[in-house]
Amino acid sequence: MDSKLLKPVLAVYVAAFILFLYGPFIVLGILSFQQGPEGGPQFPIIEWSTYWYRHLFGLTPPSRIAPLPVGEALLRSLTLAFMTMVTATVLGVMAAQAFRRRFKGAGIVFYLIVLGMMVPGVLTGLGTSLLANNVVGVERHWWTTAFVAHVVYTFPFAFLVMLAILNRFDGSVEEAAWSLGVSPARTFRKVTFPLIFPGVLSAMLFAFTLSFDEFPRTLFASGRDQTLPLAIYGTFSVEIHPNIFAFGVMTTLFSFSLLAIYGILMGLSVRRAKKIAMQEDIS
Amino acid sequence: MAYDLQLKNVGKVYDNGTPAVIDFNLDVEKGEFIAFLGPSGCGKSTTLRMISGFESVTTGDLLIRGQRVNDQPPEKRPTSMIFQNYALFPHMNVRQNVRFGLEVKGLPRDEADRKVDGILDKLGLLDISEMPTGRLSGGQRQRIALARSLVVEPDILLLDEPLGALDANLRKSIQNELKLLQRELGITFVFVTHAQSEALALSDRIIVMNAGRIEQISPPRELYTRPQSAFVARFIGSNTIIPGTVVTTAGQTITLDTPFGAISGTNRIDIAHTKGERMSIVLPAEAVELIPGETDESELRGRFGSNVIPCKIERLQVIGHIMQMLVRLENGDTINTEGHVDKYRGRLTVGAPAYVAWLPGGATMIA
Fold first, then answer.
1. Which of B10, B197, B237, B333 could cysteine-pair with B24, CB 3.0–4.6 Å?
2. pLDDT of residue B348
3. pLDDT above 70 covers what percent of chain A?
4. Mean pLDDT of B252-260
5. Do A114 and A252 belong to one domain?
6. pLDDT tens, residue by residue, B114-125
7. Is A4 within 8 Å of A15 (Cβ atoms)?
8. Chain A, window 73-112: residues with a beta carbon less than 8 angstroms from a chain B beta carbon
9. Are residues A120 and A50 in the same domain?
């Protein structure tokens, strides 16, 4: 294609992409500074204020607008995301490790695992709760059925990340350790794991963020105590006030700080990975 | 005699049914330097990996110091392996790399430290012992791999193309070091390579492999001068193979009838061969003399018997002190020959007629 035409087209495309990606967040961010408590969730901004942020933390005088019932839900979601992250990452690492050797039925097992991220979430959620209620006899809770549904959903992501990492992993360092008389278990702890750690971090990030804002699976599977996305959705159905937006801004900032932690840890590992790369260049 | 390493009818068949190693028999004495030599895919690395325990043995028995180790995992075997890419632990510095194998041996801390220092010193690595391995040169990394493997005091050191990643000069110097080290330590070395010069320079015995089978087991000199099969003759050195039929057998010397008349060579395999049998004669490049065409042929026949063939000089090439010559026979075949430059300089011209000639003792008969 003519590059004279291609460049502007691509520029417009990227601009549109960025607009759709960040536009909602920017609108949300602006509206969160609406005047309170009378100001509504729409333009124009009557007067800039941090009222809704204070409202969020219960620092405003009582008004007709109830504080967001998110405190416990937030804690629940964080705990659930953490549990999911640990479980899915451990499973993902182990499964990917197993796939380094060809075994009978490897292809089928692969697709069975990956199915977890393909099937419609509502079905998984509904299915999990039906299974728990009617077959297994487990009560529906965010830490039982929803937890299982979350792990089933995030495990394939962790698995695929680890599969890609282990694909590039040079197994001869493990063989070298074994041949020195070091047991496979210790070799994994001391050699393999430190070297695949950047991948493990990525898998953890995937699992945590996916679980944290999971909606369709949790909707049916979480039982009576709601997770954060459900609690927020619940407030929508009554009336929308800018406190939701303030809360959205806060959670986004929280996500960014997670990303920052990830970035720092990754930076440390990448510096090490660069050394490895250099080593490979020489050899 | 107790052997350090024995392979008895060892075979390896991969899961998909491809045989990788077939009926491998070998006894290795303690302190021997053994080389597995062959083209890639001949099964030499697979055999090494079976000895180390990384590959399972399909058939036969693998014994280390008289003990059957077929079912022992690699970490339980008294072997240690050096990899072509060295496989150093990138997240550890030099000392940590070397110390890693000792940490599970349950040695007192100061004894382990002493051993690590000792081997670092021996291999000249003390100065860089606290450095990360990433920025070190190939030669240094090679030495770290050696130190790491030797510090755990294996009975057998396995080396998988350990010099393959080094440049030519470094390869030579590390070759020498390796040989000295092996002499000094008295450890059995099993060395895999596809470079004949390495195998010939380093080892006490060379096992030439082809398509999963052993072609020949010989000390280097013998392997070089007395190949036992056409494969070895083609793989080692620079040989010309001329087929023919047996005319006479006189002691060690067999005479063949060939398109170039009756020519003779040494029967190494010591089996009586009957008249009319198909055999070939192997002419090593350095055993063949090239003689300018103006020489009197009957005088040559006096010296070389019937082993004189007229030819035309096709190419002359001087590499250092060696003159490499290619000649074309009357039937279009070519023969490689070489010799010291001083012997040939100024006496030969490309395109001129000449003779190739050899003494029967220099040529080897193969079936």
1. B10
2. 84
3. 94
4. 85
5. no
6. 999 999 998 889
7. no
8. 102
9. no
The CATH number covering residue A205 comes to 1.10.3720.10
Same domain, A179 and A272: no
Mark whether A150 and A193 lie in a shared domain: yes
Q: A178 and A259 in contact (C-beta within 8 Å)?
A: no
Please check whether residues A95 and A160 belong to one and the same domain: yes
- Residue A195 has its nearest CB partner, among B54, B90, B165, at B90
DSSP string, A189-215: IIIIHHHHHHHHHHHHHHHHHHHHT--
Grade residue B74 by pLDDT with cuts at 50, 70 and 90: very high
**SS3 state of residue A124:** helix
Quote the distance between the C-alpha of residue B18 and its chain's center. 25
Three-class SS state of B338: strand
Search chain A and give the residue with CA nearest B147: A180
Nearest C-alpha neighbor of B277 from the set B304, B248, B301, B305:
B248
Q: Give A273→chain B minimum CA distance, Å.
A: 8
* List of long-range contacts for A224-229, beta carbons under 8 Å, 24+ apart: A224/A140, A225/A72, A225/A73, A225/A76, A225/A141, A225/A142, A226/A73, A226/A76, A226/A142, A227/A73, A227/A76, A227/A77, A227/A80, A227/A142, A227/A146, A228/A70, A228/A73, A228/A74, A228/A76, A228/A77, A229/A77
Distance from the B165 Cα atom to the nearest Cα atom in chain A, whole angstroms: 6
- Is B97 within 8 Å of B88 (Cβ atoms)? yes
The reply to whether residue A179 touches residue B52, judged by beta carbons under 8 angstroms, is yes
Q: Which domain holds residue A30?
A: 1-67+242-283
pLDDT at B277 over 90: no
* pLDDT tens sequence across A203-246: 999 899 999 888 888 888 888 888 888 888 887 766 777 888 88
A13 plus A56 within the same structural domain: yes
ipTM of the complex: 0.83
pLDDT exceeding 90 applies to what percent of chain B? 38
Give the pairing type, strands B334-340 and B322-329: antiparallel
Answer yes or no: do A6 and A115 share one domain.
no
The domain total for chain A is 2
Delineate the domains of chain B, giving CATH numbers in brackets.
Answer: 5-225 (3.40.50.300), 238-366 (2.40.50.100)
**Position A183 pLDDT exceeds 50:** yes
A7 and A76 within one domain: no
